[in-house]
From TrEMBL:
InterPro entries listed in its UniProt record: ConA-like_dom_sf (IPR013320), Kinase-like_dom_sf (IPR011009), Legume_lectin_dom (IPR001220), Prot_kinase_dom (IPR000719), Protein_kinase_ATP_BS (IPR017441), Ser-Thr/Tyr_kinase_cat_dom (IPR001245), Ser/Thr_kinase_AS (IPR008271)
Bilayer topology: Single-pass membrane protein
Name of the molecule in the record: Protein kinase domain-containing protein
Chief localization: membrane
Organism encoding this protein: Leersia perrieri
Amino acid sequence: MGSRARPTHLLVALCLTSLCLLSINVVVPAAAAPATSLIHFDFDFSNSSSFNVDDLNQQGDTQLNGTAGIIEMTHTDNTTFSTGRVTHRLPLRLWEDADEATGAAATVTSFSTRFSFFIDPTDRDRRADGMAFFLAGFPSTIPDFSYGGLLGVYNATGATRAIAVEFDPFHNWQWDPSGTDHVGIDLKSVVSDITRSLPDHSLVGKMTAYIQFDGVTKMLALTLNFDDNATLAPVHISTHADVRTLLPQEVVFGFSATTGSWVERHRILSWSFNSSYSINSTLTSVDKRPDSSTGGTTPRTGRVLAITLPIVGAILALVVLTCFCFWRRTSARKDSSMPFKTPTSKALVRFSLASRSGNCPFLRLTELTNPDEIQSIDSILIPLSTLRIAADNFAERNKLGEGGFGVVYKGVLPEGQEIAIKRLSQGSRQGIEELKAELVLVAKLRHKNLVSLIGVCLEEDEKLLVYEYMPNKSLDTVLFDFEKRKDLDWAKRIKIVNGVARGLQYLHEDSQLRVVHRDLKASNVLLDFDYNPKISDFGLAKLFGWDQTQEVTSHIAGTYGYMAPEYAMRGQYSVKSDAFSFGVMILEIVTGRRNNSFISNSEQSIDLLSLVWEHWTTGSIEELLDPALGGHSASGQMLTLVNIALLCVQDKPADRPTMSAVNVMLGSNTVFATQAPSRPTFCIQEMDGIDTDMYSRGEFQSTSNSKTKAVTWLQPR
């Protein structure tokens, strides 16, 4: 013990010394404020002296009605498909970067706005489509095809960068809360990041909204009061909005409103706005500037200290770290003869996935995730004894399916919760890589259309992942079963397509991480009791940087028939390769056929993509509708889905839509006049080895190099 204590005491002393130096309160002169123009106004449109009409930029069908003292946002003569906007003429500057030459500090802008408005439907039972307060890049015009449910803010391609707070009385089935009036905050598309459902006919009459954005905390909040309905309590919603990643530096701000085939009037009665800026404390540490006449620290001295002391502290910290690593390495050598014990508490630093045969290498927690996530993973550890009892010692009758990385069993926890236990293959390096991918992602990803990983067990030789149980198993077990597919009516198929699209948008654009799934297919979409879809199996998923467009791998792993051509041929993958897989899956859902051209002995010799393209070009696409539907489908929706699918399977990744654009297109039947698909490509590869997949049997997955590769162009006849 004595020999161990001396290095420890030395380590503590060095750490304390470094911390003392780093915690010195460095006085840095207050930086000059930037020359940002702040915006303040209080317009009452019933009082002409309170505003100047030249301060307002009116677009589309918007009209200032001076007699009534209101701004009419949309047509007043019951005209359908009307769009109007009104914005302030000045741009709002959302941030300023630091300027070393002038000493100007980095700042962020906060703002608050209060406005009263009136929604007046011509028919209380036929109200549409709503209005929004929005911010978009300066200057800004009304996007094409943005009427109706797109609220005049977003376009069908998903290219619009805008933030909107929407007041929506119409239910767009593709993205809105079911059948109710609602408010929402939209950060990237018309698919709201947060919504609040309201009682029917709530968004009628006069209302007052208060919206506040805090540039420091990045919180955007809405409070809505129902002035004409005292029975309704005020509504509050808020969400995190990093405007630096969502918007350009200068934005327009104001209102937008639309109608569709149903009509209502949208009126702005009054509008006030205030902006302010704060020093960005994440970039600059600021204190009061000392008066040089009193002998305080000069700006030059402050800057020197601010630069020098952290460098000195960093060097000392590096020395401490080096000593610590040397000490740990020496201690590890001394303890190498001690038996390894499986850790069971939060104090664990590493765990072993090694089999007794020694074929499986060590896997340290530090390989998996950062220290903040270690606690998250540790909190979901489940004892092996519990899972053995839950699955009746992994009895054959509890087997749900078998995949390339192991077997999946059904189990029941002591409290009665049904679970699916994925038992990874012992001694398999593939199993370890999948485990690492799953554990890295589980700490961050939470979405209703992603399957939840609720536990993990890493005891003895076992590597077990515990998921929520999906009663209807995977999509392929229902869709490609002659009897079960009859349970998938058209409404359920639409629900599945929309749910998977929302889950993919979350992975690609909306989560804290940016994730490419790489193996999206019918067998990796699980269905709960109500056939709500959940994307599963993140063993092949890859994290992407926000500025990263694609990655290349020499180990092509995935499922043929779903793999994009650039991935199958060159190992290039991106969010657009997931879009390709999604397009294939849509065609399978619509037709009830597998895209199995890669199976040489298939009874269906023609592949699905070429079959769909042939019928698309001849105008006979409805002939491919799954016979199990008995002809019961919405013809327009079917054409919409096939059109989106063909856009997703375009040859060039750049020609495929983003998933946010897909979600917008799923909600519109009018965008395709300008978005006709070109002929797609498909890829065929003969495989050395195939594996079956989770929750099902008969799915083919390759994790080895293929013998031959061929890209085939589809030619219409």
